[in-house]
Design a protein that fits this description.
The chain is α/β, with parallel strands linked by helices and 508 residues long. Helix content is 35%, strand content 21%. The strands form three sheets. Strands 16-15-14-13-7-12-11-8-17 form a nine-stranded mixed sheet, with helices on both faces. Strand 5, helix 6 and strand 6 form a beta-alpha-beta unit. The chain binds 6-O-phosphono-beta-D-glucopyranose (BG6). 6-O-phosphono-beta-D-glucopyranose binds next to loops.
C-alpha cells in the first residue's frame, strides 16, 4: 500500500478552471511538489472552456495558491512560480471532436518538448454528464491507447444515480478503458484517518481479536456537517444526502471498518475484502424500510444567535422540495463476523457541528458482579475521522475509596499531538496514488454497484410513501431518528468538535 515513485508523466485535468481543481487539486499538487514527490519530469495540462494561454493560466493558478495555500515559513519566493511553470493550458469544448484532435497534437508536442514518455493520467474534474462524453472522445482520438506508456482515467463521483445508470456508465467506460485504468475517487478513502482504520484494526492484537459479534454490540457511523447546501442546490436537490454521502463515503468507511483482514495491502486484496462486505449489506425488508430509515430536511432556525434559512428557502431550492438533507439508517451485514450486530449510519447537513466518526460499542462485561457494579458502562472505541483526528477509548476503573464503584475514564490519542505531523489533504494522497498506479484507495466498479444495490430500494421507498421529517437547523436531526435508537434501548453518541467522551468538555 505504499506508493511507488510515480514515473515521468503528464497529468491532464479537464475542468481546470473549476472549483475542485482550484481549491483541491492545485494545492494538493503544490504540496506534492514541495515534498518533491511529483514525478520528474512532470507537467500538468489544464483543459477548460475559458480562453487562456499558458501564461494567463499560470497567473490564475498562482492566485489560487495564494488563496488556498498559506505561505510556509521559509518558503522560497520563487517556489510557486517554479511550480506553476510546469502547468500548461488548452482550451477545449468537450463535445467538439476537432478540439480533441488539437488536444492530441498539443500533448504530443509537449511530450516531445519536455522529453516525456507517453504516460498520461486524465482527471475528469467535470460535471457528471461529461464522464460519459469525454472518455468516448478520448478513445476516438486514440488518446486512451497504451502503446508506449500508461493511460489512466480518474473520475469523480457521482458514479451514476442508481444501479442501472452506474452499470451503464461502467459499461460505457469499459468499451474504451480496462478496469485497471479506471480510478474512481471517493475522497473519504484518501483521508489519513480512514486509512488508519486498517492499521488500527489489523496491526493491534488488542483490537483485532475483539472485532466481531462476540464482543461488539453495535456500531455507529456519523458524518455531520454544520454547513447547509450552500450554492450547490442545483446538484444537491436532485441528489439528496443518501446519494451525496451515504451511498459512497459512509458505505466505503463501513466496508473498511467491517472487512476481514486482506492478505496483502494491495488493491486486489483490499478491494476483494471490501466488496465482500458491500455485497453482504442485507437488503432492508419492507418493515425495516419503514422503521429503520429516517429522512429529514432542515427548517429555518437560529444557530448561535444567527438566523439560518430552512432548506426550502435556500437559493435554487424548489419551495416544495422533498430532498432529504439528513438520513439515518439501521442496517445489518450478511457476514458471520457481524452476526446480528446493527450498524447505525447517519449523515446530515446543518447539524450542530462538523464531525465524522465511527463508534464501536462493545458488549457489556458479562461478569455477574463486576459487570453490574454501580457506574459500570460498556467500553466504547471512538475513531475520529475529522476534525480533531484521533482515537478515544473509554473504560471503567475503580473509583478510589471504600466499596467498588466504577468510574468511566478515557484514553485518547490526537493526531495534532504528533509533533511535525500535518495531516495531508485526501487529494494529495489520491493524486499521488493514481500517478503511481496504486488503486487501493479508489472505489472499484463492483463496489460502487454493490452500494447501489443496497441503496436503490431505499431511494425507491423514499420516492414512494416514506415520510420526510423537518428538523431545526443546528440540531441533531429529526426526533424520529432518536426514537429509532430508543426502540433499541440506545442513544446516538453526541459528538463534539473536539474528540471527547460523551458528557466531557464539548465544543461545537
Ligand atoms: C462531498 C459532498 O462528497 O463531501 C459534499 O458532495 C460534502 O456535500 C463533502 O460536503 C464532505 O466532505 P468532507 O471531506 O468535508 O467531509
Amino acid at each position: 500500500m505504499s506508493a511507488a515513485t510515480p514515473q515521468p508523466q503528464m497529468l491532464v485535468i479537464f475542468g481546470a478552471s473549476g472549483d475542485l481543481a482550484r481549491r483541491k487539486l492545485f494545492p494538493a499538487l503544490y504540496s506534492l511538489h514541495v515534498q518533491q514527490l511529483l514525478p520528474r519530469p512532470f507537467l500538468m495540462l489544464g483543459i477548460g472552456r475559458t480562453q487562456y494561454d499558458d501564461e494567463m493560466f499560470r497567473a490564475e493558478v498562482m492566485k489560487d495558491l495564494d488563496l488556498f495555500v498559506p505561505k510556509a515559513a521559509g518558503e522560497h519566493p520563487q517556489e510557486r512560480l517554479c511550480f506553476a511553470n510546469s502547468f500548461y493550458y488548452q482550451q477545449l469544448s468537450t463535445n467538439d471532436g476537432a478540439d480533441y484532435a488539437r488536444l492530441a497534437a498539443r500533448m504530443e508536442q509537449l511530450q516531445r518538448d519536455n522529453e516525456l514518455p507517453d504516460n498520461v493520467v486524465y482527471y475528469l474534474s467535470t460535471p457528471p454528464a461529461l464522464s460519459q462524453q469525454i472518455p468516448v472522445f478520448l478513445a476516438q482520438h486514440n488518446l486512451h491507447r497504451e502503446h508506449n506508456g500508461f493511460k489512466r482515467l480518474v473520475i469523480e463521483k457521482p458514479f451514476g444515480s442508481d444501479g442501472v445508470s452506474a452499470r451503464a456508465l461502467h459499461e460505457l467506460l469499459h468499451k474504451h478503458f480496462e478496469e485497471r485504468q479506471l480510478y474512481r475517487i471517493d475522497h473519504y478513502l484518501g483521508k489519513e484517518t480512514v486509512q488508519n482504520l486498517i492499521v488500527l484494526r489489523f496491526a493491534n492484537t488488542l483490537f483485532d481479536t475483539v472485532w466481531d459479534y462476540r464482543h461488539i454490540e453495535y456500531v455507529e457511523i456519523t458524518a455531520a456537517e454544520s454547513i447547509g447546501v450552500e450554492k450547490r442546490a442545483g446538484y444537491f436537490d436532485s441528489s439528496g444526502i443518501i446519494r451525496d454521502m451515504i451511498q459512497n463515503h459512509l458505505l466505503q468507511v463501513l466496508a473498511l471498518a467491517a472487512m476481514d483482514p486482506p492478505q496483502q495491502f494491495d488493491s486486489a486484496c483490499v478491494h476483494a475484502e471490501t466488496l465482500k462486505v458491500l455485497r453482504g449489506l442485507r437488503p432492508l425488508s419492507a418493515t425495516e424500510l419503514q422503521n429503520n430509515v429516517i429522512f429529514g430536511q432542515y427548517t429555518a432556525s437560529h444557530v448561535r444567535g444567527e438566523s439560518v434559512p430552512g432548506y426550502r428557502d435556500e437559493p435554487d431550492v424548489p419551495a416544495d422540495s422533498h430532498t432529504e438533507t439528513y438520513a439515518a439508517i439501521k442496517l445489518y451485514l450478511n457476514h458471520s463476523r457481524w452476526y446480528n450486530v446493527p450498524f447505525y449510519l447517519r449523515a446530515g447537513k446543518r447539524l450542530p457541528t462538523r464531525v465524522t466518526e465511527i463508534v464501536i460499542h462493545f458488549k457489556r462485561c458479562p461478569h455477574p458482579v463486576l459487570g453490574t457494579l454501580p457506574g459500570a458502562l460498556p467500553n466504547q472505541l471512538i475513531i475520529r475521522i475529522q476534525p480533531d483526528e484521533g482515537v478515544l477509548m473509554t473504560f471503567g476503573l475503580k473509583e478510589p475509596g471504600g466499596g467498588f464503584h466504577v468510574k468511566n475514564v478515557s484514553m485518547d490519542f490526537h493526531y495534532k499531538d504528533l509533533a511535525k505531523t500535518a495531516i495531508a489533504d485526501a487529494y494529495e494522497r489520491l493524486l499521488l496514488d493514481c500517478m503511481s498506479g496504486d488503486a487501493t484507495l479508489f472505489a472499484s466498479g463492483d463496489a460502487v454497484e454493490a452500494c447501489w444495490d443496497f441503496i436503490d430500494p431505499i431511494l425507491a421507498w423514499k420516492n414512494s410513501s416514506a415520510r420526510l421529517f423537518g428538523y431545526p437547523a443546528g440540531t441533531w436531526g429529526p426526533n424520529e431518528a432518536d426514537a429509532m435508537m430508543a426502540r433499541d434501548g440506545r442513544t446516538w453518541r453526541y459528538p463534539c468538535k473536539n474528540l471527547a467522551a460523551d458528557g466531557d468538555y464539548c465544543e461545537l
